[in-house]
Amino acid sequence: MLLTISTTRHPATDLGYLLQKHPDKVQTFDVPGGKAHVFYPEATEDHTTAALLLDIDPVGLVRREIRGNDFALEAYVNDRPYATSSWMSTAIAGVFTSAMNGNCRDKPDMPKEAWPFVVHIPVMSVRGGEVLLRKLFEPLGYELTAEAMPLDEKFPEWGQSRYLSVSLSATCRLQDLLTHLYVLLPVMDKDKHYYVGKPEVEKLLAKGSGWLEKHPENAFIVKRYLNNRSSLTKTVMNALLSEETVEEPGEEVVVAPENEEKIRLHELRLQTACARLQQSGATSVLDLGCGEGKLLKLLAQEKQFKRIVGMDVSIRSLEIAADKLNLKRLPEREKDRFELFQGSLTYRDSRLEGYDAAALVEVIEHVDPGRLPALERSVFGFARPRTVIITTPRADYNVKYESLADGAFRHSDHRFEWTEAEFAAWCAGVGERFGYSFETEAVGETDAAFGAPSQMAVFTRKDETKQNGNKNP
Ligand code: SAH
To answer: Distance from the CA of 205 to the center of ligand 1, in angstroms?
Structure first.
């Protein structure tokens, strides 16, 4: 199965930078279901096309797919190797990860540009036909052509198949284009190759961020994406409907401590965050983007904190956090001190209201810059704790990391890393918009020339007045 992406933006060969795949090379990747090949059938400054050819391993699929089908040969006779489906969606996410996250190592500003793109999918299985295709893509600004394919060219009287040859064009960011395909390809073809469970909720909230909540067919998209599982559909729809302007990533991310120094730095950050929370006088705290619960564990040791809540978009991280806190074995009374739940910081969430303090330790840099305003509203506008503590890498220090290429980020899921000045400017904006004062501080061992590796801001709510619909006292 094949998908091509073409552009005429000049020089069109820059598509190689955006996709982080060199136009002169053929590259092959192992992906679920088989191998993905990326190559450029044409690469000139006027017109460049990148092709993603997914070579599904039918024997491998047969081994995995045999199950109690009504049609016993279905595992052997099916359209999986040929028709674009959820396998392609998984391959896009695996092969073009940086492009989907809006990252470009060599030209960091390029992913923000809207380019003219044409995507061609020669064989797409669409249950719902051209009408459905238009309902899904046109509200997102795509123009499309769809040509139905006959069931068998030799027997036109048999009529059309459910396969379409599809072209989509739009002027948009590549990140958005890939994200739309990632979500909508499995919606088009209901036959998903993966089990639909809570992780798909995470993925959908993350990838649907910023567009799905506004899509007129969002209820249909969510339902089909989640294979009609009604409880999961409800969870996503509630999140989408809770705020019309929304959200960001969600990729399962834990700061990757490449070496001892980074581990020590993270420890220090957590201890500093814990100390500042104590000094704030808080007795109830939220750890937002709690990850595997390292900060929760520190907070648990302090009696001052009577109520400790961790939230993360990643279910797997929350499970690890629950283990770390030993929640299953704690006596009931002690257990009541804690709560862990899944949620996304860029959706307004009433469960976050009524706490004294919140910490976001190494979280904001995982959120697309375009979704930061949604995070600000959810944390500073709606949840509105008296104290908010935020830490983030300090980009001025990055030259000190020898293994880090120029302009690269410390972690592949980071959407940005701010200099001290950029962080201060963001804090000032937040303070002004939401009525908080703040102080910033350096965290980590300070280098004489490049300063500290990390930075923290402690925000304090200026008054007790209600803003933006906040229900708190
Ligand atoms: N605070 C933890 C983890 C930091 S890694 C620590 O310091 O150890 C960043 C975490 O943010 C990840 O666990 C990731 O799943 C979470 N995250 C990213 N985007 C999020 C969002 N929109 N809402 C909630 N959590 C998010």
So the answer is: 14
Candidates 256, 10, 203, 171; CA nearest to 89 is 203
Domain with CATH 3.40.50.150 in the chain: 253-468
CATH C-level class of 2-194: alpha beta
What single DSSP character describes residue 138?
G
User: How far is the C-alpha of 319 from the C-alpha of 329, rounded, in Å?
Assistant: 14
Residues 183, 188, 191: CA angle, nearest 5 degrees: 95
Q: Give the residues across from 361 on adjacent strands.
A: 391
The CATH superfamily label for domain 253-468 reads Vaccinia Virus protein VP39 (3.40.50.150)
C-beta 253 within 6 A of ligand 1:
yes
50 and 21 Cβ atoms separated by less than 8 Å: yes
* Whether residue 363 has its Cβ less than 6 Å from ligand 1: yes
* Structural contact between residues 249 and 97, judged by C-beta atoms closer than 8 angstroms: no
Tell me the pLDDT tens digit for each residue of 328-361: 888 888 889 999 999 999 999 999 999 999 999 9
Closest CA to 396 of 370, 357, 423: 423
Q: Determine the distance separating the centroid of ligand 1 and the alpha carbon of 225, expressed in angstroms.
A: 24
CATH 3.30.1610.20 domain position(s) in the chain: 2-194
Provide CB contacts within 8 A for 293, sequence distance 6+.
287, 310, 317, 320, 321, 322, 324, 325, 340
Q: Is 442:451 a contact under the CB 8 Å cutoff?
A: yes
User: What tokens were used for 440?
Assistant: 């910033």
Q: Which amino acid belongs to residue 226?
A: L
Asked if residue 425 lies in contact with residue 402, where contact means CB atoms within 8 angstroms, the answer is no
Q: What is the pLDDT of residues 409-467, one digit of tens each?
A: 888 788 999 999 999 999 999 999 999 999 999 999 888 888 999 999 999 999 854 44
3-state secondary structure of 310: strand
